Fold each of these.
Amino acid sequence: MSALAIEYQAINLSQGFPDYPMSDELIGLTWEAMKAGYNQYAPMPGWPALREAIAAKIQWLYKRPVNPSTEITITPGGTYGIYTAITTAVRPGDEVIVFEPAYDSYIPNVEICGGIPVCIPLKFPDYRIDWDLVRSRISSRTRMILLNSPHNPTGIVFGEQDILQLMSIVRGTSICLVSDEVYEHLIYDGKEHLSMLRYPELFERSFVVFSFGKVYHNTGWKMGYCVAPAPLMTEYRKIHQFQAFSCHAPVQVALASFMKNRESYLFLPQFFQEKRDLFRDLLKQTRFDPLPCSGSYFQLVKYDRISQEGDKAFSVRLTKEHRVATVPLSAFYQDGQDDHVLRLCFAKQSQTLEEAVNRLKKI
Ligand code: PMP
């Protein structure tokens, strides 16, 4: 959709990335690190000061002591972090529970490792997890459950009940968890992010994945990290060592000092909530119906007051004729399930959102 957006000079609300600048200070710190000579390989698990800063953040936010030497690895992005976790734990024939709609890398990653994705639908329109259904799909071959909260593309977030259900399902099994928490700070209406890091019983079997790109408005930097208990992280690093070995050194040096300032991420829920509220408010001028959004920077909209076309055909037409690019939700399902829903990214300047709605209201 991004390629089509460029071709038709459409406003691109399809891919998840901001259209406003990242922090000048962080750019300056990276430049300084380069000038100071931090231009050779960083250690395989990541720059030590960055891992220490991450451990301090986790202790402060999620009240979990993690050992920066043995339990944190810096990765070239969150997607890589997830793939490496899957590669670490999944062997041919293993079953992996994946909730659909799903971030597009999960299922191919499982399949590359010879795993069998067991897809569980999050049902339109509230997309809650049906834990009884999950229970019924667990078998002796279930190796992993892939979790994502706040969730892309639906914007749902875990509540206490989800955590309790998850605990009761995995207790006494050897199922491990990959928890994609790249939207940890993009959570609204005073809700708290229920990270796997908060729950010792869940963390002991988890690979928890984060992305600096989502936190610091620089998705093009492709930097992230994975946190896992030492025995799991030891295995994870055996894969990482021969996949990427290490990541961009000067950026790690810069992030280590930048992230010590908690304000660098604490303003994010409010910042994005304002964008969400503005966008939802503007959408009232259109015939698109927004679904609830508690987290992430994606807004789902239903369009069946406008058209009965399939979502792919409709979003292509929207891009070509009305010059607003979106993602059809069927793209997040293996079987192309189509509930006439589109995903729009609101990590944009107000004027971009206003101009997009000016175009959408004409439909
Ligand atoms: N998980 C989800 C749910 C995402 O939306 C994204 C980014 N689109 C990622 C992981 C990957 O983040 P990164 O760009 O750091 O690879």
Note: The two ends are 19 Å apart (CA to CA).
Amino acid sequence: MIYNRIKNLLRKFCFEGEYQDVEELSSGNVNQTYHLFYDDNGTPRQYILQRINNYVFKEPENVMRNIVQVTRHLRSSMESQGECADGRVLDIIETVDGKSFYVDQFGGYWRAYVYIPNAVAPDTVESLDMMREVGRGFGHFQRLLVDFPAKELYVPIPNFHNTTKRFYTFVRAVDEDQAGRVKKVEDEIEFFFEHRRMMNQIVTLLDNGTLPLRVTHNDTKSNNVMMDKTTGKAVCVIDLDTVMPGSSLYDYGDAVRFGASTAAEDEPDTSKIALDLEKTRAFTEGFVEETNGFLTEQELRRLPLGIKVITCELAMRFLTDYIDGDLYFRVKSPQHNLIRARAQMALLRDIEKKQDQLDDMMDELLRRKF
Ligand code: GN1
Ligand code: MG
């Protein structure tokens, strides 16, 4: 029973009211997440309780230090721009000792947030309006952090989107073949060798100063932005674990990869997977509108490169984890990481076919802007 897993933790946090119920939320691939229901003298209260994956995040206390700082900055940026921050920024529930996390007797790290009411974290983006709004949500997030002192941030996963280094990690995994799976995936391995040059491009452009380093979210799936059920507006960006210096191309590219795909990230039938250009355009409009004025022309022109690089990078990360024996991502079956890798490879092939159309879309949007 889920309750047995969490019951001892409940009194460690400053939750208000009486515990009523718990549900496990399963859409994350890394952390374990629970939705808690409380009753505070007739007022319902809801919380999120999460166990931070400490295989992925080696120093969870520093991840939490980042989140405390980032949420504080988001709140004060909103207030200074005359926006109401209530319910629009992740709200950490402290432990009874006044900390932002609790360590259990097995060394597990736990944290809690106020659940954002009347909102959904969409696993699939159903309409163009919703996709435009997801774009606004992540664009707005980037705008609020534009003056965040990047040097103060701890880097939770070094080289997280350094695709060049990720390629070396992949090659090492192939060489070591620790789960004996390499012989089953020779064609897939070849695919990443063929895409090696393309994958290096953002790293090179950051290194030579063509693209600026910014504070970015780095995990911009549509289910990381809460959408208000009544108004359909983006209310709050969640999952701040990987906020760190990066490129706007990563945030743009990852959001399009996920939200504008015609199928789920782990769709086994690859014939169903394609990039929806209309959704891509809708996202781009929302994102560009919110980041207007601070994204450079170099960044704007290269946004489509972000879609390709991030899709390829993630495909390679899934394949690496399959080869390693499923150490990193949570899997539902022994084939899950391979299915995910093949799905992202299929998406990348379709993105490559649509390259000219993506470039035309950006040209047209840029002509409108300048
Ligand atoms: C992981 O756990 P979740 O769903 O927030 C991963 C992302 C991947 C994503 C793919 C820290 O995110 O990088 O893009 O899965 N997060 C980490 O679904 O590795
Ligand atoms: Mg995440």
Note: The first helix runs from residue 2 to 10.
